[in-house]
Amino acid sequence: MDNFNAAMDMLREQFEVGSGVWLVLFGILTILAAVYLLRGIYIYFKKAVESVNFLVLVVPIFLWGFLLIGGPLLGFDTSEGSGLGLITRGADLFIPTFLMLHIWSQVSYRPITGVSRFLWLFVPIILTLAYVLKVVMPEIDFGTIPILDGDISTITVVANVYFVVVSIKSYLLCFNVFYQMPAHMRRSTYQMLIAISAIVVAYGVPAYLGLPQDSMNVFLAIAYIIVMYTLFTAFFIANAANVIVTSRDFVFSSLSTLVITVSLKGNILDWNRKAKDSCLPLPNPKYNEPYMHYRKRILDTCHGTVSPHDENIINIKGPDSENNFLCYWHEIGYMGHKYGYLIEIADVSNIYSQLRYIEGIAFYDNLTLLYNRNAYIERVKQFETSEHMPLLIVVGDVNNLKRVNDELGHLCGDKLLLTVTRIVKELAPKNSFIARIGGDEIVMLVPHANEEKAISFIASVTQRLKALDDPEIGSPSISWGYSVMHDASEDYNDVFRAADAIMYEAKRKSREISISGVVPHGAPRP
Fold this sequence. Notes:
Layout: H1 2-14, H2 19-46, H3 52-73, H4 83-107, H5 114-136, H6 152-180, H7 187-209, H8 213-237, H9 240-245, H10 248-254, E1 258-263, E2 268-271, H11 273-276, H12 291-301, E3 304-306, E4 313-317, E5 322-334, E6 337-347, H13 349-363, H14 373-383, E7 391-398, H15 401-408, H16 410-427, E8 433-436, E9 441-447, H17 451-466, E10 478-485, H18 492-507
Antiparallel strand pairs: 1-2, 1-6, 3-4, 4-5, 5-6, 7-9, 7-10, 8-9
Helix pairs in contact: 2-3, 2-8, 3-4, 3-8, 4-5, 4-6, 4-7, 5-6, 6-7, 7-8, 15-16, 16-17
Protein backbone atom coordinates (compact mmCIF):
# COMPACT_ATOMS: atom_id res chain seq x y z
CA MET A 1 0.00 0.00 0.00
CA ASP A 2 2.90 2.35 0.80
CA ASN A 3 4.43 1.63 -2.60
CA PHE A 4 1.14 2.46 -4.32
CA ASN A 5 0.84 5.79 -2.49
CA ALA A 6 4.44 6.63 -3.36
CA ALA A 7 3.71 5.93 -7.03
CA MET A 8 0.65 8.17 -6.93
CA ASP A 9 2.71 10.99 -5.38
CA MET A 10 5.32 10.63 -8.10
CA LEU A 11 2.67 10.84 -10.82
CA ARG A 12 1.21 13.96 -9.26
CA GLU A 13 4.62 15.58 -9.27
CA GLN A 14 5.12 14.68 -12.94
CA PHE A 15 1.90 16.47 -13.89
CA GLU A 16 2.91 19.82 -12.42
CA VAL A 17 2.77 22.04 -15.49
CA GLY A 18 5.01 25.01 -16.06
CA SER A 19 3.72 28.25 -17.53
CA GLY A 20 5.68 27.72 -20.75
CA VAL A 21 4.11 24.32 -21.44
CA TRP A 22 0.70 25.74 -20.54
CA LEU A 23 1.11 28.63 -22.94
CA VAL A 24 2.27 26.45 -25.86
CA LEU A 25 -0.37 23.79 -25.36
CA PHE A 26 -3.32 26.15 -25.12
CA GLY A 27 -1.97 28.23 -27.96
CA ILE A 28 -2.01 25.14 -30.17
CA LEU A 29 -5.53 24.27 -28.99
CA THR A 30 -6.90 27.77 -29.68
CA ILE A 31 -5.31 27.98 -33.13
CA LEU A 32 -6.54 24.50 -34.11
CA ALA A 33 -10.02 25.27 -32.82
CA ALA A 34 -10.13 28.44 -34.92
CA VAL A 35 -8.89 26.53 -37.98
CA TYR A 36 -11.42 23.72 -37.57
CA LEU A 37 -14.16 26.27 -36.94
CA LEU A 38 -13.41 27.99 -40.25
CA ARG A 39 -13.09 24.68 -42.11
CA GLY A 40 -16.35 23.48 -40.58
CA ILE A 41 -18.09 26.64 -41.80
CA TYR A 42 -16.55 26.11 -45.27
CA ILE A 43 -17.73 22.53 -45.63
CA TYR A 44 -21.14 23.53 -44.26
CA PHE A 45 -21.65 26.04 -47.07
CA LYS A 46 -20.16 23.62 -49.60
CA LYS A 47 -22.71 21.08 -48.30
CA ALA A 48 -20.11 18.36 -48.70
CA VAL A 49 -20.96 16.73 -45.37
CA GLU A 50 -23.30 17.40 -42.44
CA SER A 51 -21.21 19.67 -40.19
CA VAL A 52 -23.68 21.65 -38.04
CA ASN A 53 -23.12 19.55 -34.93
CA PHE A 54 -19.37 19.66 -35.51
CA LEU A 55 -19.50 23.46 -35.53
CA VAL A 56 -21.63 23.47 -32.37
CA LEU A 57 -18.95 21.31 -30.72
CA VAL A 58 -15.94 23.35 -31.89
CA VAL A 59 -17.35 26.70 -30.70
CA PRO A 60 -17.26 25.88 -26.94
CA ILE A 61 -13.85 24.21 -27.38
CA PHE A 62 -12.57 27.40 -28.98
CA LEU A 63 -14.09 29.54 -26.20
CA TRP A 64 -12.69 27.25 -23.53
CA GLY A 65 -9.16 27.36 -24.91
CA PHE A 66 -9.19 31.03 -25.91
CA LEU A 67 -10.46 32.27 -22.56
CA LEU A 68 -8.04 30.15 -20.54
CA ILE A 69 -5.00 31.38 -22.51
CA GLY A 70 -6.19 34.71 -23.88
CA GLY A 71 -7.84 35.98 -20.74
CA PRO A 72 -4.65 36.21 -18.65
CA LEU A 73 -2.62 37.50 -21.62
CA LEU A 74 -5.15 40.27 -22.18
CA GLY A 75 -5.30 41.09 -18.49
CA PHE A 76 -8.77 39.58 -17.84
CA ASP A 77 -9.71 37.72 -14.72
CA THR A 78 -10.47 34.08 -15.57
CA SER A 79 -10.63 32.70 -12.05
CA GLU A 80 -13.56 30.47 -11.01
CA GLY A 81 -15.51 33.37 -9.55
CA SER A 82 -15.10 35.69 -12.54
CA GLY A 83 -17.47 36.08 -15.48
CA LEU A 84 -14.97 34.61 -17.96
CA GLY A 85 -14.33 31.78 -15.55
CA LEU A 86 -18.04 31.00 -15.50
CA ILE A 87 -18.15 30.95 -19.32
CA THR A 88 -15.19 28.57 -19.35
CA ARG A 89 -16.85 26.32 -16.82
CA GLY A 90 -20.11 26.33 -18.80
CA ALA A 91 -18.30 25.43 -22.02
CA ASP A 92 -16.62 22.58 -20.19
CA LEU A 93 -20.02 21.23 -19.06
CA PHE A 94 -21.57 21.35 -22.56
CA ILE A 95 -18.71 19.85 -24.61
CA PRO A 96 -19.35 16.13 -23.77
CA THR A 97 -23.03 16.50 -24.71
CA PHE A 98 -22.20 18.28 -27.96
CA LEU A 99 -19.73 15.48 -28.74
CA MET A 100 -22.45 12.86 -28.20
CA LEU A 101 -24.95 14.75 -30.39
CA HIS A 102 -22.38 15.08 -33.16
CA ILE A 103 -21.68 11.33 -33.07
CA TRP A 104 -25.42 10.66 -33.06
CA SER A 105 -25.83 12.71 -36.24
CA GLN A 106 -22.99 10.82 -37.92
CA VAL A 107 -23.81 7.19 -37.16
CA SER A 108 -27.59 6.95 -36.72
CA TYR A 109 -30.27 7.27 -39.39
CA ARG A 110 -32.77 8.21 -36.67
CA PRO A 111 -32.76 12.03 -36.66
CA ILE A 112 -32.19 14.06 -33.53
CA THR A 113 -35.51 15.72 -32.80
CA GLY A 114 -35.80 19.09 -31.12
CA VAL A 115 -37.25 17.43 -28.03
CA SER A 116 -34.37 14.93 -27.83
CA ARG A 117 -31.81 17.68 -28.22
CA PHE A 118 -33.44 19.76 -25.47
CA LEU A 119 -33.66 16.82 -23.05
CA TRP A 120 -29.99 15.99 -23.48
CA LEU A 121 -28.98 19.64 -23.03
CA PHE A 122 -31.31 20.20 -20.08
CA VAL A 123 -28.88 18.87 -17.47
CA PRO A 124 -25.87 20.96 -18.68
CA ILE A 125 -28.11 24.05 -18.77
CA ILE A 126 -29.33 23.46 -15.18
CA LEU A 127 -25.83 22.68 -13.96
CA THR A 128 -24.45 25.83 -15.58
CA LEU A 129 -27.17 28.00 -14.06
CA ALA A 130 -26.65 26.39 -10.66
CA TYR A 131 -22.92 26.96 -10.89
CA VAL A 132 -23.43 30.61 -11.84
CA LEU A 133 -25.85 31.16 -8.94
CA LYS A 134 -23.60 29.47 -6.41
CA VAL A 135 -20.55 31.46 -7.50
CA VAL A 136 -22.14 34.87 -8.16
CA MET A 137 -24.59 34.82 -5.23
CA PRO A 138 -23.06 32.53 -2.60
CA GLU A 139 -24.76 34.44 0.22
CA ILE A 140 -28.29 33.50 -0.90
CA ASP A 141 -29.94 30.56 0.85
CA PHE A 142 -31.77 28.49 -1.76
CA GLY A 143 -33.38 26.27 0.83
CA THR A 144 -34.32 22.79 -0.40
CA ILE A 145 -34.05 23.47 -4.12
CA PRO A 146 -32.25 20.46 -5.65
CA ILE A 147 -28.57 21.05 -6.53
CA LEU A 148 -28.71 24.63 -5.17
CA ASP A 149 -29.15 23.52 -1.56
CA GLY A 150 -25.61 22.10 -1.41
CA ASP A 151 -22.19 23.44 -2.20
CA ILE A 152 -20.16 23.40 -5.43
CA SER A 153 -19.17 19.79 -4.86
CA THR A 154 -22.83 18.75 -5.27
CA ILE A 155 -22.89 20.29 -8.75
CA THR A 156 -19.61 18.51 -9.54
CA VAL A 157 -21.03 15.14 -8.48
CA VAL A 158 -24.14 15.60 -10.66
CA ALA A 159 -21.95 16.75 -13.56
CA ASN A 160 -19.75 13.66 -13.21
CA VAL A 161 -22.75 11.32 -13.17
CA TYR A 162 -24.20 13.01 -16.23
CA PHE A 163 -20.81 12.80 -17.95
CA VAL A 164 -20.80 9.02 -17.39
CA VAL A 165 -24.30 8.75 -18.91
CA VAL A 166 -23.34 10.81 -21.96
CA SER A 167 -20.15 8.79 -22.44
CA ILE A 168 -22.04 5.50 -22.30
CA LYS A 169 -24.57 6.82 -24.84
CA SER A 170 -21.72 7.86 -27.16
CA TYR A 171 -20.06 4.46 -26.91
CA LEU A 172 -23.36 2.66 -27.57
CA LEU A 173 -23.95 4.74 -30.69
CA CYS A 174 -20.55 3.72 -32.02
CA PHE A 175 -20.84 0.08 -31.02
CA ASN A 176 -24.18 -0.07 -32.82
CA VAL A 177 -22.27 0.82 -35.99
CA PHE A 178 -20.09 -2.27 -35.63
CA TYR A 179 -23.21 -4.41 -35.66
CA GLN A 180 -25.10 -2.44 -38.28
CA MET A 181 -22.43 -1.49 -40.81
CA PRO A 182 -20.14 -3.51 -43.06
CA ALA A 183 -16.49 -3.64 -41.97
CA HIS A 184 -15.23 -1.18 -44.59
CA MET A 185 -17.61 1.52 -43.27
CA ARG A 186 -16.36 1.32 -39.66
CA ARG A 187 -13.15 3.31 -40.03
CA SER A 188 -14.79 6.66 -39.37
CA THR A 189 -16.39 5.20 -36.25
CA TYR A 190 -12.97 4.16 -34.94
CA GLN A 191 -12.02 7.84 -35.12
CA MET A 192 -15.11 8.77 -33.10
CA LEU A 193 -14.28 6.13 -30.49
CA ILE A 194 -10.84 7.69 -30.13
CA ALA A 195 -12.49 11.09 -29.57
CA ILE A 196 -14.82 9.72 -26.88
CA SER A 197 -12.00 7.84 -25.17
CA ALA A 198 -9.80 10.95 -25.14
CA ILE A 199 -12.52 12.89 -23.29
CA VAL A 200 -13.10 10.03 -20.85
CA VAL A 201 -9.38 9.77 -20.08
CA ALA A 202 -9.06 13.56 -19.73
CA TYR A 203 -11.80 13.65 -17.11
CA GLY A 204 -11.12 10.34 -15.42
CA VAL A 205 -7.34 10.22 -14.93
CA PRO A 206 -6.92 13.61 -13.21
CA ALA A 207 -9.93 12.93 -10.99
CA TYR A 208 -8.54 9.52 -10.04
CA LEU A 209 -5.07 10.91 -9.37
CA GLY A 210 -6.44 13.93 -7.50
CA LEU A 211 -4.55 16.39 -9.73
CA PRO A 212 -5.09 20.14 -9.42
CA GLN A 213 -7.33 22.02 -11.88
CA ASP A 214 -4.35 23.24 -13.95
CA SER A 215 -3.20 19.68 -14.59
CA MET A 216 -6.77 18.61 -15.44
CA ASN A 217 -6.96 21.45 -17.97
CA VAL A 218 -3.81 20.12 -19.64
CA PHE A 219 -5.46 16.72 -20.06
CA LEU A 220 -8.59 18.39 -21.42
CA ALA A 221 -6.61 20.53 -23.85
CA ILE A 222 -4.88 17.45 -25.26
CA ALA A 223 -8.22 15.62 -25.41
CA TYR A 224 -9.93 18.48 -27.25
CA ILE A 225 -7.14 18.58 -29.83
CA ILE A 226 -7.60 14.85 -30.40
CA VAL A 227 -11.40 15.28 -30.57
CA MET A 228 -11.30 17.95 -33.26
CA TYR A 229 -8.70 16.14 -35.35
CA THR A 230 -10.35 12.71 -35.23
CA LEU A 231 -13.87 14.01 -35.88
CA PHE A 232 -12.77 16.15 -38.80
CA THR A 233 -10.81 13.21 -40.25
CA ALA A 234 -13.89 10.99 -39.86
CA PHE A 235 -15.82 13.34 -42.15
CA PHE A 236 -13.71 12.39 -45.14
CA ILE A 237 -13.25 8.70 -44.35
CA ALA A 238 -17.00 8.17 -44.54
CA ASN A 239 -19.43 11.02 -44.11
CA ALA A 240 -22.72 10.67 -42.27
CA ALA A 241 -24.78 9.98 -45.40
CA ASN A 242 -22.51 7.11 -46.44
CA VAL A 243 -22.47 5.60 -42.98
CA ILE A 244 -26.24 5.82 -42.59
CA VAL A 245 -27.05 4.47 -46.04
CA THR A 246 -25.12 1.28 -45.22
CA SER A 247 -26.97 0.70 -41.97
CA ARG A 248 -28.60 -2.71 -42.09
CA ASP A 249 -31.69 -1.53 -40.20
CA PHE A 250 -31.97 1.50 -42.46
CA VAL A 251 -31.62 -0.60 -45.62
CA PHE A 252 -33.96 -3.26 -44.26
CA SER A 253 -36.67 -0.73 -43.42
CA SER A 254 -36.26 1.18 -46.69
CA LEU A 255 -36.87 -1.78 -48.98
CA SER A 256 -39.88 -1.45 -51.27
CA THR A 257 -40.61 -5.12 -50.68
CA LEU A 258 -41.92 -6.92 -47.61
CA VAL A 259 -39.05 -8.94 -46.12
CA ILE A 260 -39.71 -11.62 -43.52
CA THR A 261 -37.10 -13.65 -41.63
CA VAL A 262 -38.17 -17.20 -40.92
CA SER A 263 -36.63 -19.85 -38.65
CA LEU A 264 -35.63 -23.32 -39.84
CA LYS A 265 -38.96 -24.53 -38.48
CA GLY A 266 -40.76 -22.05 -40.74
CA ASN A 267 -41.88 -19.63 -38.00
CA ILE A 268 -41.78 -15.86 -38.57
CA LEU A 269 -39.13 -14.10 -36.46
CA ASP A 270 -39.01 -10.54 -37.83
CA TRP A 271 -40.13 -8.34 -40.70
CA ASN A 272 -39.30 -4.90 -42.05
CA ARG A 273 -41.05 -1.56 -41.78
CA LYS A 274 -43.07 -2.06 -44.99
CA ALA A 275 -45.23 -4.52 -43.09
CA LYS A 276 -45.18 -2.59 -39.82
CA ASP A 277 -46.35 0.61 -41.55
CA SER A 278 -49.00 -1.28 -43.57
CA CYS A 279 -47.68 0.20 -46.81
CA LEU A 280 -48.76 -2.91 -48.72
CA PRO A 281 -52.28 -4.38 -49.07
CA LEU A 282 -51.24 -7.40 -47.02
CA PRO A 283 -52.03 -8.39 -43.42
CA ASN A 284 -49.27 -7.83 -40.85
CA PRO A 285 -47.20 -10.89 -39.95
CA LYS A 286 -47.22 -12.14 -36.37
CA TYR A 287 -44.21 -13.15 -34.32
CA ASN A 288 -43.67 -16.94 -34.25
CA GLU A 289 -46.54 -17.46 -36.70
CA PRO A 290 -45.82 -20.27 -39.19
CA TYR A 291 -45.15 -18.70 -42.57
CA MET A 292 -47.54 -21.10 -44.33
CA HIS A 293 -50.28 -19.94 -41.92
CA TYR A 294 -49.47 -16.33 -42.81
CA ARG A 295 -49.66 -17.20 -46.50
CA LYS A 296 -53.10 -18.76 -45.92
CA ARG A 297 -54.17 -15.58 -44.08
CA ILE A 298 -53.19 -13.55 -47.15
CA LEU A 299 -55.29 -15.78 -49.40
CA ASP A 300 -58.28 -15.77 -47.03
CA THR A 301 -58.40 -12.15 -45.85
CA CYS A 302 -57.37 -10.56 -49.15
CA HIS A 303 -59.45 -12.86 -51.40
CA GLY A 304 -56.20 -13.98 -52.98
CA THR A 305 -55.55 -16.77 -55.44
CA VAL A 306 -52.42 -18.65 -56.41
CA SER A 307 -51.23 -17.81 -59.92
CA PRO A 308 -51.52 -20.61 -62.47
CA HIS A 309 -48.06 -19.62 -63.71
CA ASP A 310 -46.19 -20.10 -60.44
CA GLU A 311 -47.32 -21.18 -56.97
CA ASN A 312 -45.06 -18.49 -55.47
CA ILE A 313 -47.16 -15.73 -57.09
CA ILE A 314 -50.25 -14.60 -55.19
CA ASN A 315 -52.94 -12.58 -56.97
CA ILE A 316 -55.02 -10.22 -54.82
CA LYS A 317 -58.07 -8.60 -56.38
CA GLY A 318 -59.29 -5.32 -54.94
CA PRO A 319 -62.44 -3.38 -55.82
CA ASP A 320 -60.68 -1.33 -58.50
CA SER A 321 -57.37 -3.08 -59.16
CA GLU A 322 -55.38 -6.26 -58.84
CA ASN A 323 -52.02 -6.72 -57.10
CA ASN A 324 -49.66 -9.56 -57.80
CA PHE A 325 -46.99 -10.56 -55.26
CA LEU A 326 -44.00 -12.82 -55.81
CA CYS A 327 -42.84 -14.69 -52.69
CA TYR A 328 -39.16 -15.47 -53.14
CA TRP A 329 -37.17 -17.55 -50.65
CA HIS A 330 -33.52 -16.90 -49.76
CA GLU A 331 -31.50 -19.20 -47.55
CA ILE A 332 -29.75 -17.59 -44.55
CA GLY A 333 -26.49 -19.37 -43.81
CA TYR A 334 -22.76 -19.08 -43.31
CA MET A 335 -19.88 -21.45 -43.98
CA GLY A 336 -22.20 -24.26 -45.01
CA HIS A 337 -24.49 -23.89 -41.99
CA LYS A 338 -28.14 -23.01 -42.62
CA TYR A 339 -29.86 -20.91 -39.94
CA GLY A 340 -33.15 -19.89 -41.50
CA TYR A 341 -34.76 -18.19 -44.47
CA LEU A 342 -35.44 -14.72 -45.79
CA ILE A 343 -38.74 -14.40 -47.65
CA GLU A 344 -39.06 -11.43 -49.98
CA ILE A 345 -42.61 -10.54 -51.00
CA ALA A 346 -42.42 -8.13 -53.92
CA ASP A 347 -45.23 -6.38 -55.76
CA VAL A 348 -44.79 -7.56 -59.37
CA SER A 349 -48.10 -6.20 -60.67
CA ASN A 350 -46.50 -4.27 -63.53
CA ILE A 351 -44.37 -7.21 -64.63
CA TYR A 352 -47.28 -9.59 -64.21
CA SER A 353 -49.55 -7.43 -66.37
CA GLN A 354 -46.88 -7.41 -69.07
CA LEU A 355 -46.60 -11.18 -68.74
CA ARG A 356 -50.34 -11.47 -69.23
CA TYR A 357 -50.16 -9.20 -72.26
CA ILE A 358 -47.40 -11.29 -73.82
CA GLU A 359 -49.27 -14.43 -72.84
CA GLY A 360 -52.38 -13.01 -74.47
CA ILE A 361 -50.48 -12.56 -77.71
CA ALA A 362 -48.80 -15.96 -77.51
CA PHE A 363 -51.64 -18.14 -76.18
CA TYR A 364 -54.96 -16.46 -76.95
CA ASP A 365 -56.93 -16.00 -80.13
CA ASN A 366 -57.36 -12.24 -80.50
CA LEU A 367 -60.84 -12.51 -82.01
CA THR A 368 -62.67 -15.05 -79.87
CA LEU A 369 -60.39 -14.78 -76.78
CA LEU A 370 -60.27 -18.59 -76.71
CA TYR A 371 -56.88 -20.25 -76.33
CA ASN A 372 -54.95 -20.57 -79.61
CA ARG A 373 -53.00 -23.46 -81.13
CA ASN A 374 -49.82 -22.64 -79.14
CA ALA A 375 -51.71 -22.89 -75.86
CA TYR A 376 -53.48 -26.03 -77.10
CA ILE A 377 -50.21 -27.86 -77.75
CA GLU A 378 -48.86 -26.85 -74.33
CA ARG A 379 -52.05 -27.99 -72.58
CA VAL A 380 -52.06 -31.35 -74.37
CA LYS A 381 -48.58 -32.01 -72.95
CA GLN A 382 -49.92 -31.23 -69.46
CA PHE A 383 -53.02 -33.40 -69.87
CA GLU A 384 -51.20 -36.47 -71.20
CA THR A 385 -50.64 -37.75 -67.65
CA SER A 386 -52.51 -40.35 -65.65
CA GLU A 387 -53.80 -37.79 -63.12
CA HIS A 388 -56.02 -36.26 -65.85
CA MET A 389 -57.45 -39.53 -67.18
CA PRO A 390 -59.98 -40.18 -68.58
CA LEU A 391 -59.57 -37.19 -70.93
CA LEU A 392 -62.52 -36.19 -73.09
CA ILE A 393 -61.65 -34.69 -76.49
CA VAL A 394 -64.42 -32.78 -78.22
CA VAL A 395 -63.85 -31.40 -81.73
CA GLY A 396 -66.18 -28.85 -83.31
CA ASP A 397 -66.21 -27.19 -86.72
CA VAL A 398 -68.36 -24.13 -87.39
CA ASN A 399 -70.52 -24.81 -90.44
CA ASN A 400 -70.65 -22.50 -93.44
CA LEU A 401 -67.96 -20.08 -92.16
CA LYS A 402 -66.23 -19.96 -95.55
CA ARG A 403 -69.51 -19.30 -97.38
CA VAL A 404 -70.43 -16.49 -94.95
CA ASN A 405 -66.99 -14.91 -95.38
CA ASP A 406 -67.18 -15.14 -99.18
CA GLU A 407 -70.79 -14.03 -99.64
CA LEU A 408 -71.47 -11.69 -96.68
CA GLY A 409 -67.97 -10.50 -95.82
CA HIS A 410 -65.47 -11.15 -93.05
CA LEU A 411 -67.32 -8.94 -90.57
CA CYS A 412 -70.28 -11.30 -90.74
CA GLY A 413 -67.89 -14.25 -90.55
CA ASP A 414 -66.36 -12.78 -87.38
CA LYS A 415 -69.83 -12.27 -85.98
CA LEU A 416 -70.63 -15.92 -86.67
CA LEU A 417 -67.49 -17.08 -84.87
CA LEU A 418 -68.05 -14.77 -81.88
CA THR A 419 -71.67 -15.90 -81.51
CA VAL A 420 -70.78 -19.59 -81.61
CA THR A 421 -67.75 -19.37 -79.27
CA ARG A 422 -69.68 -17.27 -76.75
CA ILE A 423 -72.30 -19.99 -76.40
CA VAL A 424 -69.66 -22.74 -76.33
CA LYS A 425 -67.84 -20.96 -73.44
CA GLU A 426 -71.08 -20.44 -71.53
CA LEU A 427 -72.12 -24.11 -71.72
CA ALA A 428 -68.69 -25.77 -71.41
CA PRO A 429 -67.92 -27.82 -68.26
CA LYS A 430 -66.13 -25.82 -65.53
CA ASN A 431 -62.82 -27.65 -65.79
CA SER A 432 -62.67 -27.63 -69.58
CA PHE A 433 -60.01 -26.15 -71.84
CA ILE A 434 -61.28 -24.61 -75.10
CA ALA A 435 -59.05 -23.54 -77.99
CA ARG A 436 -59.56 -22.27 -81.52
CA ILE A 437 -56.94 -24.27 -83.43
CA GLY A 438 -57.96 -23.37 -86.97
CA GLY A 439 -60.08 -20.86 -88.86
CA ASP A 440 -63.35 -22.60 -87.97
CA GLU A 441 -62.19 -25.49 -85.75
CA ILE A 442 -62.60 -25.63 -81.97
CA VAL A 443 -61.20 -28.25 -79.57
CA MET A 444 -62.38 -28.78 -76.00
CA LEU A 445 -60.39 -30.93 -73.54
CA VAL A 446 -62.14 -32.05 -70.35
CA PRO A 447 -60.18 -34.05 -67.73
CA HIS A 448 -62.03 -36.77 -65.81
CA ALA A 449 -64.96 -36.79 -68.24
CA ASN A 450 -66.74 -39.39 -70.38
CA GLU A 451 -68.93 -39.67 -73.51
CA GLU A 452 -72.09 -38.77 -71.57
CA LYS A 453 -70.68 -35.37 -70.72
CA ALA A 454 -69.82 -34.80 -74.39
CA ILE A 455 -73.32 -35.78 -75.53
CA SER A 456 -74.94 -33.48 -72.94
CA PHE A 457 -72.69 -30.56 -73.91
CA ILE A 458 -73.26 -30.97 -77.65
CA ALA A 459 -77.03 -31.21 -77.18
CA SER A 460 -77.07 -28.01 -75.08
CA VAL A 461 -75.02 -26.03 -77.61
CA THR A 462 -77.06 -27.27 -80.56
CA GLN A 463 -80.31 -26.33 -78.87
CA ARG A 464 -79.07 -22.81 -78.02
CA LEU A 465 -77.82 -22.21 -81.57
CA LYS A 466 -81.09 -23.38 -83.13
CA ALA A 467 -82.97 -20.91 -80.97
CA LEU A 468 -81.05 -18.02 -82.55
CA ASP A 469 -82.43 -16.17 -85.55
CA ASP A 470 -79.96 -13.45 -86.44
CA PRO A 471 -80.92 -11.30 -89.49
CA GLU A 472 -77.36 -11.56 -90.84
CA ILE A 473 -76.11 -15.04 -89.92
CA GLY A 474 -79.39 -16.83 -89.23
CA SER A 475 -79.14 -19.87 -86.91
CA PRO A 476 -75.49 -21.01 -86.71
CA SER A 477 -74.52 -24.64 -86.36
CA ILE A 478 -71.45 -26.72 -85.52
CA SER A 479 -70.43 -30.19 -86.58
CA TRP A 480 -69.20 -32.15 -83.55
CA GLY A 481 -67.05 -35.17 -82.83
CA TYR A 482 -65.70 -36.61 -79.61
CA SER A 483 -63.60 -39.40 -78.16
CA VAL A 484 -62.14 -40.37 -74.79
CA MET A 485 -58.49 -41.05 -73.92
CA HIS A 486 -58.73 -43.59 -71.09
CA ASP A 487 -55.05 -44.15 -70.32
CA ALA A 488 -51.86 -42.07 -70.53
CA SER A 489 -50.21 -44.87 -72.50
CA GLU A 490 -52.55 -44.20 -75.45
CA ASP A 491 -51.38 -41.96 -78.28
CA TYR A 492 -53.17 -38.62 -78.08
CA ASN A 493 -53.22 -38.13 -81.85
CA ASP A 494 -54.96 -41.48 -82.36
CA VAL A 495 -57.70 -40.48 -79.92
CA PHE A 496 -57.98 -37.05 -81.55
CA ARG A 497 -58.30 -38.60 -85.01
CA ALA A 498 -61.16 -40.75 -83.73
CA ALA A 499 -63.01 -37.60 -82.56
CA ASP A 500 -62.14 -35.82 -85.80
CA ALA A 501 -63.50 -38.73 -87.85
CA ILE A 502 -66.88 -38.38 -86.20
CA MET A 503 -66.86 -34.66 -86.89
CA TYR A 504 -65.78 -35.46 -90.47
CA GLU A 505 -68.88 -37.55 -91.03
CA ALA A 506 -71.08 -34.68 -89.88
CA LYS A 507 -69.30 -32.27 -92.16
CA ARG A 508 -68.53 -34.55 -95.11
CA LYS A 509 -70.98 -32.96 -97.49
CA SER A 510 -69.57 -29.46 -97.07
CA ARG A 511 -65.97 -30.71 -97.59
CA GLU A 512 -64.77 -28.20 -94.99
CA ILE A 513 -62.52 -30.74 -93.32
CA SER A 514 -59.58 -30.02 -90.94
CA ILE A 515 -57.21 -32.12 -88.84
CA SER A 516 -55.32 -29.17 -87.39
CA GLY A 517 -55.75 -30.59 -83.89
CA VAL A 518 -53.15 -33.30 -84.51
CA VAL A 519 -50.17 -32.52 -82.27
CA PRO A 520 -46.77 -32.64 -84.05
CA HIS A 521 -44.84 -35.73 -82.98
CA GLY A 522 -41.73 -33.59 -82.52
CA ALA A 523 -43.38 -31.66 -79.69
CA PRO A 524 -41.67 -32.45 -76.36
CA ARG A 525 -43.61 -34.42 -73.79
CA PRO A 526 -43.43 -34.08 -70.00
